[in-house]
Write a structure and sequence with these properties.
alpha/beta, Rossmann fold, Uridine Diphospho-n-acetylenolpyruvylglucosamine Reductase, domain 3, six-stranded mixed beta sheet, 12 helices, globular
Length: 369
């Protein structure tokens, strides 16, 4: 079979991604010409399919790659019930997946609980929970997500809008572990144009979510009530590309990849600081609500970037939520202490310094405060 350039690229990307996750060709017969059924106990890869062009292209590519490797391949379609005729859209996509040979193919209607985090975030959390439940039921080895280079660029821009620091621009990783399950994003090097071409070449139809703004003219900005990601996709990214005079999707995605590597290195170095800067607890610490003793002198000797990252991870591990101003206040107990009080965190946590020791503890339970 002769593949197009887009299909060759997609097949190679998925094979590489699966092999990195330990899912290689099951035995030699799958290297020979002809159709070979996978063994009933072969590893199962599960495509998270929405019926959109990206996930339909991923389903088509997964069907071909799984046959090459002797893997079983199925699909899960999560129906959020948020779009008009969403049940029909899911059933149509499920039928197409079955025609491509995917098995099992499951449609999962869900209710999206509102938490105040925003509809997009609430839908994403509900979707991952449902995907995880379905994957466990069929004992899937991995779940494939159809995020593309365009999604990566949009994620990096949203990070810049909503946050700050290096982690704001790291985007999505090609591999993610969530709830003990392995998720893979093999198409982060593919563009939305690539997946569109694959669908056209394979004779696949797809559904475009109207909240993405695809139906709006390019010279019209989306209304403010559209999701932020849609406005970034429709308005901001094209404007940046016009301003820069080149494709900012690729630039942002490549920048996110480099930033993610830098962040991973800093995280490893920060983790290595634990044994150096955390002092042994004293016998009555628990009774006085003291969670951690930090050696201020040893912390001061560390690079500021590494020190701040260590503090963020430490507070996260302790279950303490902190904003950037509180992190800076904690760092000032190390780098610029002149007797000032330390930061107060939410949920009755706080930090303060005594001589060369910084104590992080439950507020109101400190001895000799």
């Amino acid at each position: 079979m002769v593949y197009s350039a887009q299909m060759k690229k997609a097949v190679g990307a998925l094979r590489s991604c699966l092999e990195d996750a330990g899912l290689r060709r099951q035995d030699g017969r799958f290297a020979r010409h002809g159709r070979h059924r996978p063994d009933p106990d072969a590893p199962l890869i599960l495509v998270a399919c929405s019926g959109g062009r990206d996930s339909m292209a991923l389903a088509a590519v997964s069907a071909k790659v799984s046959a090459m490797l002797g893997l079983r391949c199925g699909a899960v379609l999560i129906d959020h019930g948020l779009a008009k005729n969403s049940d029909r859209i899911s059933l149509k996509a499920a039928t197409d997946c079955r025609r491509m040979g995917l098995d099992p193919v499951r449609v999962r209607p869900i209710h999206v609980p509102r938490t105040g985090a925003g509809l997009e975030a609430d839908a994403r959390e509900a979707r991952y929970e449902a995907l995880g439940e379905e994957a466990r039921q069929v004992n899937a080895s991995v779940i494939l997500l159809a995020h593309t280079m365009d999604d990566q660029a949009e994620t990096a821009l949203i990070g810049l809008i909503r946050s700050r620091g290096l982690d704001a621009i790291t985007g999505m990783d090609i591999r993610m572990n969530r709830g003990g399950l392995e998720y893979l994003r093999p198409f982060l090097g593919m563009t939305r144009q690539d997946t569109t071409q694959i669908c056209l070449q394979q004779g696949l139809s797809w559904w475009d979510d109207p909240t993405n703004g695809d139906g709006y003219p390019a010279d019209h900005t989306l209304p403010d009530d559209f999701p932020l990601r849609s406005r970034v996709r429709h308005d901001l990214l094209p404007a940046l590309s016009r301003f820069a005079g080149h494709d900012m999707v690729r630039s942002l995605a490549q920048g996110a990849d480099m930033a993610r590597r830098d962040a991973a290195y800093l995280n490893r170095q920060a983790a290595a600081l634990v044994d150096q800067v955390i002092d042994a607890p004293e016998p009555d610490d628990a009774a006085h609500g003291i969670l951690v003793r930090l050696n201020a002198r040893r912390l001061r000797d560390q690079d500021p970037a590494l020190r701040l990252r260590f503090m963020v991870h430490l507070l996260t591990d302790l279950g303490i939520q902190a904003d950037s101003s509180q992190i800076r206040a904690l760092d000032s107990l190390v780098s610029d202490w002149h007797g000032q009080r330390g930061p107060a965190f939410p949920s009755s946590y706080s930090a303060f310094r005594k001589s060369q020791v910084i104590l992080i503890c439950n507020d109101g339970h400190h001895a000799n405060r």
